[in-house]
User: Fold this.
Amino acid sequence: MPEQTIKVNYSGAVNAALQRVLAEVPETLLYGEDVAKPGGVHGVTRGLWKEFGDRVFDTPISESAILGSAVGAAMMGRRPIVEIMWADFFLVALDQMINQAANVRYVSQGKLTAPFVVRTQQGNSPGACAQHSQNLEALFLHTPGLRVAMPSSPQDAYDIMVSAVHCDDPVIVFDNRTLYFGQKQEIVTGRPPAPIGGSVLRRSGQAATVVTWGAMTHRVLEAADQLAAQGTFVAVIETPWLNPFDTDTVIESVERTGGRLAVVHEANTTAGFGAEVITRVAEAGVLRGRPARIGVPDARMPAAPALASALIPDTGRIIEGLARLTADR
Amino acid sequence: MADLRAMWRIRAFEEKTQALCGTGDIRGSVHLCIGQEAGPVGACGVLEGSDALFATYRGHGWAIARGTPLRPLMAELLGRSTGVNGGRGGSAYLSAPEYGFHGENSIVGAGAPIAVGAALAGRYDGTHRIALTVFGDGAMNQGSVHEAMNFAAATCLPVLFICENNRWSELTPIKDAVGSDILADRPRALGMTAVRIDGNDPDLVRRTIGDLAAAARTGGGPAFVELATQRLVGHYVGDPQQYRTREELAADREQEPIARAVRELTAAGVAAEEITAVEKNAREEVEQAAQAALADPLADSDSAREHVYA
Ligand SMILES: Cc1ncc(C[n+]2csc(CCOP(=O)(O)OP(=O)(O)O)c2C)c(N)n1
Assistant:
């Protein structure tokens, strides 16, 4: 696979990664609702059916069968990449993820494995209803046996998809719908697949460590920029891989930033993965003062944009939270 | 004439909704039922006040046919505090139980088991209500719909499963998603009456569902009705429909219930002015409702955390 630089938006990056793995891994299959002939409801899988023929196909609206068949085909040596059109639709078929996929390797002592990838997208966009806007990563992070990633940039979207397909365990890659049609950026394709895991230091600073993932990364960086303009520099660590999670890097950074830690995510605060991150840092004994946990307060997601924007953390709320944290010495 | 009037109210509402999406007043995903108006108009005619109705995201027509006033319905789509759910539901997940409309659902097939429960409750609360659940052809492939149909059949509950077959499940034709496209064979195999009828004829819909409802009310158990129909617009507002041919759309426009009712009324000698007045009146009523709703205040962001718990 020669290295190449291409200019794509986020959805183009996912498309390029899928194109690559379909070409380089003959065991791959790509299927889901509307993914083949129509090219996906967001156009992410456009052109792949034309290029790869019957390894790319449309399915009935049957999420249990989509996920269950991926488990079975993976057990027999295929590498299915399946799409759950909205993360909310996972919920009609959770059995296949949590009781089935997550158990295959463990219960068979590794004699059976289920290496497949679920592509899905989540998050709120204006006017999405309560059943089309949830952020569900914590459900899957509560389930050992599943790998979970949530990229926020075209380069990571590309690299993570390639790594996920080469991973020997079930991997869920959550996109955020609002990122699909962002700015085109240059990305490097064709590099050897990286091992899964790791984090990215998006900004350095001494005042506090902010950990975030997914689309929130962009809001956190905006908030960090504004704080920097006022003379407060926070370190921003993006953790596009949530399982495996780069706990060590986070702990080291918190140590360097006076024990101050904030976690920002779009998911509900209660029992969100932010709580886990804070607990791990607390257990490491490096936390000082009161950590900040910024997410959606415990409510359902209303359709009216005026209501939803009162719930989802925006730059202002993030700045407020961080300002309190850095003042708290 | 009454059916044409009822169908025009729905179509005018949907067309206004489409326009308000275009101006950005309505945000988010909106699924119109343009072309499918005969089903709700025919079916709701046989429902009683205590009966329950569960629709999908393509449910504006069902809400209207059930009697929900247009202004709070439009206000809901516009995210106003005066909407039927104060903006929480939106286009794809709204409800108006005070009018016997127990809600849309944005999860394909999810309404079917809930409707079974509504009928179950009626067995104990003395209403013996009928529950009607509406879903598309694509929803036939959901486990929840199969489970619901069998549960209702096994327990002989008065549930009417209404499948609006518009031949498309989002961007994929139903024929590509089934091994046999005789959908009614499935409920029939589960032990219930199952028919496929012309879903563009409101009177036929009324009579068919009326008979099955009467049977269900007297212990006859559930039934399944497939309404053969078509959507004249995209799956959602903004869907460019590249997957459909011009010929198909032209044929659908021939079949659609309003054009057809107009042809029939004209053939029966009804004056053209009388027929055009129906459209005009419907558009005026919708326009008034929309203007009133547009003048209403947006949902109050301070209330965003209310109603999570009792
Ligand atoms: C469980 C679930 N899977 C997928 C979707 C995405 N989706 C929404 S509508 C739709 C097509 C449904 O087609 P059909 O049942 O025929 O109804 P129609 O939209 O034609 O009225 C799909 C796949 C969903 N909302 N819920």
The two ends of chain B are 45 Å apart (CA to CA). Strands of chain B lie at 52-54, 131-136, 159-165, 168-169, 172-173, 193-198, 223-228. Chain B touches chain A through 46 residues (CB under 8 Å).
